[in-house]
Design brief:
Length: 158
């Protein structure tokens, strides 16, 4: 073809694997990891649910999900080993406090956060600066920003 993707792919040769993400810039998490740490607000629940559905049985997943109250908690089936912690906004314990107490399993993993921009930035910084995770093993997306509409940004080095 003559399109942009065809021109981009033309020089490709056998070698390292290539991942292709679906609409919206879906994150591809490589196989062979020991754990995933997923953090988000209610806007992240569909992505977290998808990861739960696609996760291999041996994977350990810790998910911290901030919602308004217990009425927003949903069943999230998975064949992986999951630990879902629902945090109620304005409750006795904040998502930051719950994250600070998380003990990650041994081995290599991947940390992901999505939701309100300030939450995503703060949690991404915590992953890297406090938990010591390599930036290449961290993904953060701001699905929305308080007081604005029509925003989605991937947060990188800041």
């Amino acid at each position: 073809g003559a399109g942009r993707a065809a021109r981009w792919a033309a020089p490709a040769a056998p070698g390292p694997p290539l991942g292709v993400a679906g609409p919206g810039g879906s994150t591809i998490v490589r196989d062979g990891l020991a754990w995933n740490l997923l953090v988000g607000d209610e806007t992240a629940v569909p992505a977290i649910a998808r990861r739960f559905e696609e996760a291999p049985p041996g994977l350990s997943i810790v998910a911290l999900i901030e919602v308004e109250d217990a009425a927003e908690e949903l069943p999230l089936p998975s064949s992986a080993r999951v630990d879902v912690r629902w945090i109620h906004r304005g409750g006795a314990t904040s998502i930051d406090e719950v994250l600070a107490a998380v003990q990650l399993p041994a081995g290599e993993g991947f940390a992901w956060v999505a939701g309100e921009r300030d939450l995503a930035r703060r949690i991404r910084r915590h992953f890297i600066e406090v938990m010591g995770l390599p930036p290449g093993h961290v993904k953060a997306s701001a699905y929305w920003r308080r007081g604005e509409t029509g925003r989605h940004e991937v947060l990188g080095d800041e």
